[in-house]
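Trying the structure run again after the queue cleared.
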Amino acid sequence: MPTVLLTTHELRTGLLPRLCARCGEPTDEFVRMTVPTPLSQTALGFCLPLCPPLFLAVALLSKKWSSVHLPMCRPHGEDWRWRDRLTSTAYLWVVCVGYLAAIAVGIFTDLDPGVAAAGYLFVWVMWMVPAVLIWTETVRVTKVTRWGVRLSGVDPAFVAAIREDRARAADPARLPFHGDVRDDYDDQPD
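Done. C-alpha coordinates:
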Protein backbone atom coordinates (compact mmCIF):
# COMPACT_ATOMS: atom_id res chain seq x y z
CA MET A 1 0.00 0.00 0.00
CA PRO A 2 1.23 3.51 -0.76
CA THR A 3 1.90 6.29 1.70
CA VAL A 4 0.85 9.91 1.55
CA LEU A 5 2.25 13.03 3.14
CA LEU A 6 -0.46 15.25 4.62
CA THR A 7 0.29 18.75 5.80
CA THR A 8 -0.91 20.14 9.10
CA HIS A 9 -2.94 22.65 7.06
CA GLU A 10 -4.74 19.87 5.18
CA LEU A 11 -5.51 17.99 8.37
CA ARG A 12 -6.73 20.96 10.39
CA THR A 13 -8.90 22.38 7.63
CA GLY A 14 -10.30 19.01 6.50
CA LEU A 15 -8.92 19.27 2.96
CA LEU A 16 -9.08 15.52 2.41
CA PRO A 17 -10.95 13.89 -0.46
CA ARG A 18 -14.27 12.25 0.34
CA LEU A 19 -12.78 8.86 -0.51
CA CYS A 20 -12.12 6.01 1.88
CA ALA A 21 -8.43 6.25 2.76
CA ARG A 22 -8.26 2.43 2.85
CA CYS A 23 -10.14 1.36 -0.31
CA GLY A 24 -10.59 4.56 -2.34
CA GLU A 25 -14.40 4.31 -2.59
CA PRO A 26 -16.51 7.47 -2.16
CA THR A 27 -17.71 7.96 1.42
CA ASP A 28 -19.19 10.49 3.80
CA GLU A 29 -18.10 8.50 6.87
CA PHE A 30 -15.06 9.30 9.00
CA VAL A 31 -12.92 7.91 11.79
CA ARG A 32 -11.54 10.18 14.47
CA MET A 33 -7.77 9.78 14.29
CA THR A 34 -5.30 11.36 16.66
CA VAL A 35 -2.42 13.00 14.83
CA PRO A 36 0.37 13.73 17.30
CA THR A 37 2.71 16.67 17.10
CA PRO A 38 6.44 15.94 17.31
CA LEU A 39 6.43 17.05 20.96
CA SER A 40 3.43 14.94 21.95
CA GLN A 41 4.83 11.99 19.99
CA THR A 42 8.09 12.25 21.94
CA ALA A 43 6.18 12.44 25.23
CA LEU A 44 3.99 9.50 24.22
CA GLY A 45 6.98 7.43 23.14
CA PHE A 46 8.75 8.11 26.43
CA CYS A 47 5.70 7.38 28.59
CA LEU A 48 4.44 4.35 26.65
CA PRO A 49 6.77 1.84 28.34
CA LEU A 50 8.05 3.87 31.31
CA CYS A 51 4.89 5.29 32.89
CA PRO A 52 1.59 3.96 31.53
CA PRO A 53 -0.63 6.18 33.72
CA LEU A 54 1.16 9.28 32.39
CA PHE A 55 0.93 7.86 28.86
CA LEU A 56 -2.86 7.63 29.23
CA ALA A 57 -3.03 11.28 30.34
CA VAL A 58 -0.85 12.49 27.44
CA ALA A 59 -2.77 10.31 24.97
CA LEU A 60 -6.12 11.73 26.12
CA LEU A 61 -4.80 15.29 25.85
CA SER A 62 -3.40 14.58 22.37
CA LYS A 63 -6.73 13.13 21.29
CA LYS A 64 -8.53 16.22 22.57
CA TRP A 65 -6.13 18.70 20.94
CA SER A 66 -5.13 17.03 17.69
CA SER A 67 -7.87 14.80 16.35
CA VAL A 68 -8.76 14.82 12.68
CA HIS A 69 -11.53 13.20 10.71
CA LEU A 70 -10.08 10.72 8.24
CA PRO A 71 -12.51 9.57 5.54
CA MET A 72 -13.21 5.83 5.68
CA CYS A 73 -16.14 3.80 4.43
CA ARG A 74 -18.27 2.02 7.00
CA PRO A 75 -16.56 -1.43 6.76
CA HIS A 76 -13.02 0.00 6.89
CA GLY A 77 -14.01 2.50 9.58
CA GLU A 78 -15.33 -0.33 11.75
CA ASP A 79 -12.17 -2.33 11.04
CA TRP A 80 -10.06 0.66 12.11
CA ARG A 81 -12.18 1.24 15.26
CA TRP A 82 -11.94 -2.37 16.50
CA ARG A 83 -8.16 -2.21 16.18
CA ASP A 84 -8.14 1.05 18.14
CA ARG A 85 -10.46 -0.34 20.84
CA LEU A 86 -8.53 -3.62 21.15
CA THR A 87 -5.08 -2.09 21.46
CA SER A 88 -6.31 0.66 23.82
CA THR A 89 -8.23 -1.73 26.07
CA ALA A 90 -5.38 -4.24 26.10
CA TYR A 91 -2.93 -1.47 27.01
CA LEU A 92 -5.13 -0.41 29.90
CA TRP A 93 -5.71 -3.89 31.29
CA VAL A 94 -2.42 -5.58 30.45
CA VAL A 95 0.26 -2.88 30.53
CA CYS A 96 -1.17 -0.52 33.14
CA VAL A 97 -2.16 -3.33 35.48
CA GLY A 98 1.23 -4.99 34.92
CA TYR A 99 2.96 -1.69 35.71
CA LEU A 100 1.00 -1.20 38.93
CA ALA A 101 1.55 -4.85 39.89
CA ALA A 102 5.31 -4.48 39.35
CA ILE A 103 5.34 -1.41 41.61
CA ALA A 104 3.32 -3.24 44.27
CA VAL A 105 5.61 -6.29 44.11
CA GLY A 106 8.68 -4.05 44.33
CA ILE A 107 7.32 -2.19 47.35
CA PHE A 108 5.39 -4.78 49.34
CA THR A 109 7.48 -7.93 48.90
CA ASP A 110 11.04 -8.96 49.53
CA LEU A 111 11.49 -9.72 45.85
CA ASP A 112 14.26 -7.82 44.12
CA PRO A 113 12.74 -4.74 42.37
CA GLY A 114 14.77 -5.64 39.29
CA VAL A 115 12.80 -8.88 38.96
CA ALA A 116 9.52 -6.94 39.16
CA ALA A 117 10.81 -4.49 36.54
CA ALA A 118 11.88 -7.37 34.27
CA GLY A 119 8.43 -8.93 34.68
CA TYR A 120 6.81 -5.65 33.69
CA LEU A 121 9.13 -5.32 30.68
CA PHE A 122 8.11 -8.82 29.59
CA VAL A 123 4.41 -7.90 29.90
CA TRP A 124 4.99 -4.70 27.92
CA VAL A 125 6.75 -6.54 25.08
CA MET A 126 3.99 -9.17 25.06
CA TRP A 127 1.49 -6.34 24.49
CA MET A 128 3.61 -4.33 22.05
CA VAL A 129 4.34 -7.06 19.49
CA PRO A 130 0.68 -7.96 18.78
CA ALA A 131 -0.33 -4.28 18.94
CA VAL A 132 2.17 -3.39 16.21
CA LEU A 133 1.11 -6.37 14.10
CA ILE A 134 -2.59 -5.49 14.41
CA TRP A 135 -1.98 -2.04 12.90
CA THR A 136 0.09 -3.21 9.90
CA GLU A 137 -2.98 -3.96 7.77
CA THR A 138 -4.77 -0.62 7.99
CA VAL A 139 -4.25 3.13 7.67
CA ARG A 140 -1.83 4.44 10.28
CA VAL A 141 0.47 7.37 11.01
CA THR A 142 4.06 6.32 10.31
CA LYS A 143 5.94 9.62 10.48
CA VAL A 144 5.31 12.87 12.31
CA THR A 145 7.09 16.16 11.66
CA ARG A 146 6.26 19.77 12.44
CA TRP A 147 4.94 20.15 8.85
CA GLY A 148 2.58 17.18 8.85
CA VAL A 149 2.33 13.42 8.89
CA ARG A 150 2.84 10.45 6.66
CA LEU A 151 -0.03 7.97 6.49
CA SER A 152 0.74 4.43 5.42
CA GLY A 153 -1.68 1.79 4.21
CA VAL A 154 -3.71 4.22 2.10
CA ASP A 155 -5.31 3.39 -1.23
CA PRO A 156 -3.70 4.67 -4.46
CA ALA A 157 -7.01 6.37 -5.42
CA PHE A 158 -6.89 8.37 -2.17
CA VAL A 159 -3.31 9.45 -2.95
CA ALA A 160 -4.25 10.36 -6.53
CA ALA A 161 -7.24 12.42 -5.33
CA ILE A 162 -5.02 14.37 -2.92
CA ARG A 163 -2.48 15.05 -5.70
CA GLU A 164 -5.19 16.21 -8.09
CA ASP A 165 -6.75 18.46 -5.47
CA ARG A 166 -3.37 19.98 -4.62
CA ALA A 167 -2.68 20.64 -8.30
CA ARG A 168 -6.06 22.35 -8.77
CA ALA A 169 -5.78 24.47 -5.61
CA ALA A 170 -2.13 25.49 -6.08
CA ASP A 171 -1.99 26.33 -2.36
CA PRO A 172 1.61 26.32 -1.02
CA ALA A 173 0.33 25.41 2.46
CA ARG A 174 -0.84 22.08 1.03
CA LEU A 175 2.58 21.01 -0.18
CA PRO A 176 4.34 19.07 2.57
CA PHE A 177 7.72 19.81 4.06
CA HIS A 178 9.71 21.85 1.49
CA GLY A 179 6.58 23.32 -0.03
CA ASP A 180 6.92 21.85 -3.49
CA VAL A 181 6.62 18.56 -5.32
CA ARG A 182 10.05 17.35 -4.13
CA ASP A 183 8.40 16.11 -0.94
CA ASP A 184 5.50 14.19 -2.40
CA TYR A 185 7.05 10.77 -2.93
CA ASP A 186 3.92 8.80 -2.00
CA ASP A 187 4.51 5.95 -4.38
CA GLN A 188 8.19 5.41 -3.54
CA PRO A 189 9.31 2.94 -0.84
CA ASP A 190 11.32 4.40 2.05
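The chain has one domain: 3-94+139-183. Worth checking whether this holds up in the mutant runs.
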